[in-house]
Structures are given as C-alpha cells and as structure tokens.
Amino acid sequence: MFTPAPLFPGARVALLCTSSAVPDGRLAPAVAAVRSLGLEPVIYPSCTELHGYFSGDDARRAADLNAAFADESIDGILCARGGYGAHRLLPLLDFDVIAAHPKFFSGYSDVTALHTAFQQECGFVTYHTIMPTTEYYQPVDCYSMDYLRRALFGCLTGPLCNPPDQPPVTLAGGRVTAPLCGGNLSLLAASLGTPWEIDTRGKLLFLEDIGEKTYRIDGMLTQLRNAGKLDDCAGVLLGAWTDCPPEDPDRTLLLPDLFRELILPAGKPTLAGLACGHVLPTMALPLGATLTLDADAGTLEVIA
C-alpha cells in the first residue's frame, strides 16, 4: 500500500464536500481553521452548492473530487464534512486518474465509502480524521487536534493511544500485524454486493457508528458476519458507538451482547473502546497502513 506524501506548511489543500451540504455559517470559520494549521485551502464548488440534502448533485461532487486529484497544484484533499451520499459518487469517479495522482485524503463517517474504494481500487493510504466543518471550525480538544496534525504532517506513526482516562477494553486476546480497513459500519454494510465491497481478508477491521438503534447495529453486524467479513479479517477494533440506544430499554440486547454474539465467535483479537469515531476526543487512523494490535496488552501501533 502506497503512502502519499504528507502535507507541509503552505500546502494547497482542496476543501470539498462529497456528501451533505455545509451547515450555514460554518464554511468561513472552517477555512480560517485550515489556514491556522499552516495550510492554504482551495474552496471547491461543492462547499457552497445545494441539491436537496446534498452539497450539489452527484455530478458536481464527483467532478470536484476527480479535479482535485488530477490538479497537480493540489497537495491534499480535506473532506469538509460527511453526512450522506458519498457512495453515490463511486460509479462517477475516475479511479485511473486518482490512482495516478495519489495524495493526502482525509475525512470520516460517510467518507468511509471513499476510503474503502481508494484503498482497494487505487492502492494508497487515506486518513480517518476530524473534519473542518464538523469539528474544528470551532475550538476542539488538544488530543483530537494533535492527532489531526500528526495525520496531516506525516507523524501518525508508532503507538496510537487512547486518552489516559479512557482505557480500551479487551474482548478477545491475541496479537496480529495487518493492514487497517473499515470505518463507519453503515457504509461498510452498504458496500456489500457492490463492486466496492469491503475486502477484510487478512486485515484489521475498524468499526464505529452513530445514531443507530441497537437492532440496526445487530442487523449490520449480522450482514458482515453472514458475508464472511468477520471470519476473513485478522482482528477487530471497535470505536465509538455514539447515540446508539436500544429501541425498547426493557426488552433489548445491548451492544456488548451484540459484540459477544456476532463478533467474538470468529475467534479474532478484538479491542473495544478505541477513542475514534463520532466522538471527542478522537484519534486519527491511517487506513490502509500496517498496524500491530496486541489485544491482550490493549495496544495499537502503526508499523508502516
């Protein structure tokens, strides 16, 4: 897996939207926040367009992404936000051009669809990070900003550690070194049966989600299990499950029950409680890079 060149002070970065529109009043402070990191944002049309609940129609959003990769004056691409709709772009992307111009690419949530496609179709590492109009258009905790800077500037190496007061939880022991894949569970489940289906073979699988009832989490984990994705993977990392309550608190399975019943039977090292996902503070992850998970010790380390 190829690792694109890191960003640097003065780097020109495309600021674009691949999914939902930028909320009112957030674009200007987001641009200022990107500049405060020492980068020069180039605002693409999808940041200001609107098509229903999208940031412009599919053709506009895909055109921005294709153009940003093709433009040799652009050093990296920052997805302004997630939301919904990135997987609608996949048939419209020029993967040959993208593969020929690999560059720093970051975002999370709905951007999972693009992370997966770029790793599998184009063969380069991408970064699961907080986003300008979702988090750091306003002040964000030092932990999250430190991980963002490490990702941006090529320092996301070595141990990836939770905040001191948030120790991860070992669900199944074991130690494995493997490439990292995954992201938002909803997007990974939606990829099944498409040309861009998540390939977990021999990989560490990271999962997180937001705003889903426990029975929905159950259904999506069951879909991954039934598709062989949990048997195929080398290990599992479970991040934040934000606002994922049971539909009926008096008659439900809880998330730990789902993990025990659906994930652990595959017999893979599994670590829960990773500080990553729709949560602050949150770490950044280099998707596609090789990591070592020691579930017994509760540690995660970037190897290459």
Would you kindly provide a written description of the structure presented here, covering whatever features stand out?
It is a single chain. The protein is α/β, with parallel strands linked by helices and 304 residues long. Helices cover 28% and strands 22% of the residues. It has 9 helices and 14 strands. It has helices spanning 27-36, 58-70, 95-100, 112-122, 142-152, 185-191, 214-226, 229-232, 255-263; strands at 12-16, 40-43, 76-79, 104-107, 126-128, 158-159, 169-172, 175-184, 204-210, 235-242, 270-272, 285-287, 290-294, 299-302. The strands form 2 sheets. Strands 6-14-13-8-9-10-11-7 form an 8-stranded mixed β-sheet. Strands 2-1-3-4-5-12 form a 6-stranded mixed β-sheet, with helices on both faces. Helix 6 packs across helix 7 and helix 7 runs parallel beside helix 9 (255-263). The longest helix has 13 residues, at 58-70. It is globular, with a radius of gyration of 18 Å.
* Distance between the amino and carboxyl termini: 9 Å
What's the overall geometry? Answer: globular
Structural class: alpha/beta
Specify the helix fraction band: 25-40%
N-to-C order of helices and strands:
EHEHEHEHEHEEEHEHHEHEEEE
SSE blueprint and pairings:
Blueprint: E1 12-16, H1 27-36, E2 40-43, H2 58-70, E3 76-79, H3 95-100, E4 104-107, H4 112-122, E5 126-128, H5 142-152, E6 158-159, E7 169-172, E8 175-184, H6 185-191, E9 204-210, H7 214-226, H8 229-232, E10 235-242, H9 255-263, E11 270-272, E12 285-287, E13 290-294, E14 299-302
Parallel strand pairs: 1-2, 1-3, 3-4, 4-5, 8-9, 9-10, 10-11
Antiparallel strand pairs: 5-12, 6-14, 7-11, 8-13, 13-14
Helix pairs in contact: 6-7, 7-9
